[in-house]
Amino acid sequence: MVEHLATLRRVVHVVNLDPAAERFEYPVLADVRELIQVEDVMEDDELALGPNGALVFCMEHLVGNPSWLQEALGETQEDYLLFDCPGQIELYTHLPVMSQLIGWLQNWDFRICVVFLLDSQFMVESFKFLSGVLAALSAMVSLEVPQVNVMTKMDLLSPAAQKEVERFLDPDLYSLMEDSAGAWRSRKFQDLTRAIYELVDDYGLVRFIPLNREQPDTIQEVVQLVDSTLQIGDEEEFREPQEISDEANLEEFLSSQEN
């Protein structure tokens, strides 16, 4: 994504917010590991935290130090920032950490779009797809900002698997529901699954777009959707429509619009 944005002559910066990250193949503008690292937290005998607990501790520490992040970001007005965040789903669905972080960024006049990434390799069964949909929906409700849902790593799938996964990009959920009917173990489970499918399908709550790193057009599609969500390029001031009282004023009105 960074390379693709560079070809578009975008001024883009990457911000690492994953305190458990090991290395990057590109420069980062700010790195949370300069503030706190998961390994250091896990080595603290008093805290006695495992990997997940240490990660949550690090993120809570980050949110408790907004001045560090603001100083690390510096002056980046009009620039395109990519925040590389941890993958633990509970940070986005159960804990207030990420929503608090987004709140800080909004207070600093950032326009925010969440890009929710779902691994396509796990989307070969309807139940797993439904689980991914619910995770995306939970994040959307919790974070309360515009969200783009992307199905990643399409390039790692075989042609047959790609064809199977394509069913889930703009799915007929009723057909998927019937395909999984044989796995229903009870009537209650069947009714609950059916209700969830119907809710998601009727309201069109979640849709995914594919991302194949070997196909630049799929990367560009993600960029365009994020641009549209952030209203990038919509700098022209909106003009309220004018009322035309009679035909005599029509020509004058059209002339003013052309100018």
UniProtKB/TrEMBL annotation:
Signal sequence bounds: none
Bias kind Acidic residues: ranges: 236-250
- Disordered: region residues: 236-259
Question: What CDD domains would the database entry show?
Answer: GPN3
GO MF assignments: GTP binding; GTPase activity
> Which keywords fit this entry according to its UniProt record?
GTP-binding, Hydrolase, Nucleotide-binding
Q: Does the keyword Hydrolase apply?
A: yes
Question: Does Nucleotide-binding show up as a keyword for this record?
Answer: yes
Q: Which Pfam families match?
A: ATP_bind_1 (PF03029)
Q: What does this protein do?
A: Small GTPase required for proper nuclear import of RNA polymerase II and III (RNAPII and RNAPIII). May act at an RNAP assembly step prior to nuclear import.
Q: How does it assemble?
A: Binds to RNA polymerase II (RNAPII).
- Write out the similarity annotation: Belongs to the GPN-loop GTPase family.
Q: Name it.
A: GPN-loop GTPase 3
What is the scientific name of the source organism?
A: Eptatretus burgeri (Inshore hagfish)
Q: What does the record give as the organism's lineage? A: Eukaryota, Metazoa, Chordata, Craniata, Vertebrata
